[in-house]
# Entry
Amino acid sequence: MNTTGYGMTLRRVYFAAAGLAVLAMCSSALPQSWPEFGDETAERLVSSTELGATDPEEKDYAWGDFDKDGDIDLAVARKQPATSTGRRRNVLFMNEDGVLVDRTEEYATAADDGGQGFLDLTNDRDIVATDVDGDGWLDLVTAPTYGQGLPKTISHPRVYMNQGATDGQWNGFLYEEARFPELPSWPNFCGVAAGDVTGDGFPDLYFTDYDTLQPNTFDDRLMINLGNGFFIDQSTARMPNIFLDSGFGIHVVIEDLNNDGWNDVIKNEAGSVRVAYNLGDGFFDSGNVDSIYGGSAYFFNTGDLNNDGLLDIVISDDGIDVYQLNQGNGDDGFANFINLQFPESTNGFGGNSIIADLDQDGFNDVLIADFDVDVDGCDRISDILRNNADAPFVAFTAPATGIPNNLFNGVHDLGVFDVNGDCWLDVVVGRCAGTTIWINQGDGTDCSNIITPNDFDPFRGFHLSGDLGDVLASDDNDLCYNPGITIFPTEAPVTLDFFGTLPNDSPASLDVTIESSANTVGLGLTFSFWNYNTNSWDVVGTDTQSLNDDTARTFAGNPADHVEPGTGSVKTRYEVRQVSFIFVFPWADCVDHVFWTIG
# Structure
């Protein structure tokens, strides 16, 4: 879910409206209480019961603001549970003022193959949201399995193109068959990841295959985006057979694991987790394939657990689940890890995992679903694990969440996003027994003290995609600019000024959050507030842009200089400058979310 239209990973930068501050990469957590969750399914889920509250099928989630209305929507890929041939229709839930409403027939039935889009019976095991054509609207890609003897439109991955809006009315998704080529055989895919491996700014696709049960003629597939949302198969041309060969490929992500500015491919199969490191040109070879876990991994995910700016790994193991803390690169350029165990309550089969900050303490927590992709059974219990924020070697506990065990068992997937618009992450639980929505009851920061921009001004740079609406939520819809073909350190930076209006002109504190990303390394960031007393910009922070999530924050100062008396106006400047001669064409920097927080 965490890819954008330019195949980049998002990062968060926090700084305060007070004199220049050095942004610390590892900071202590904000004091926060652990939230509980309340079951609000009855009032927040609108669909037929068999597609919602009592849906018995296997479910996989992808979420984002598909219609750009500021709310996060949910796409659901469905199939008969476990490794099976049973095909089912998919569901599109649109978020309407905090209520997830089944709008499949209105917005997800258009197709150019003569079918009915989401209503067609497919055996989709995975689904991702990503902007494949760079138009600023999130598209959907599915990974089907067991399509033997079925036509291409049913057996192969589908690309559902977001049709954008006309006169303010969203047009929904259109399945376009030609965007994905016909493969040598019907696939047995289990997972798909989207991310830019070639450095052209467009997300490519990697599919994991588990053909040991029903053999086909090929293994994993690396599909390269031609720069327009159409894909070609360059698996054997770019990836070594030793990596393409999957004994039982389950999950894959495309991320920059060794922080060299090029996205790598990480997957788990047959119990192990392996990575193919990008050579720096979108090609991979057998000498740059590394095994990073050799236990019984049946799912994994990546994210920064200890706020050091490096990607860590969460592993759902058949035994006690494991997390690996990235220790940086060795002499071989490969990332090194230390293995630590989650609480013993995670012992047993597990499945999908999500890394997200549930309590707003600045450290990512972990959710692990209990349904194993291959071992049927709905009697195991899922886990929500709190990050104790004791960096650098963070530990996790399993506190009460308000979700009873009998409503947190048999979980296929978890959707973790803000359902009701209160700025706290909620949890959509896809169980064997149906779908439930659990609303975070967190206290502290909420939307009443968060202000989003009402305008922006591109002081320098060429517009690539996006508009004001794309910076109002963290949803992978981005506002993207570049300086042209290249940029050198002596040139003026790409500059975006954001404007907002606070509810009063004398807040006790004023912070701004900017979520941004780039498709190249060697970029420096500068953040400034407009000083209404001196009529000049005050630089309040600097940082280095990265392809991976990292967190930098400081809390200090008196905001009186930076809020206009009488009007409550505030202005923040975001600058991106090349600090080396390294660049990628098309060079692109994207802002996904901007907001001010007042105290």
User: Anything to note?
Assistant: The first strand starts at residue 11 and ends at 16.
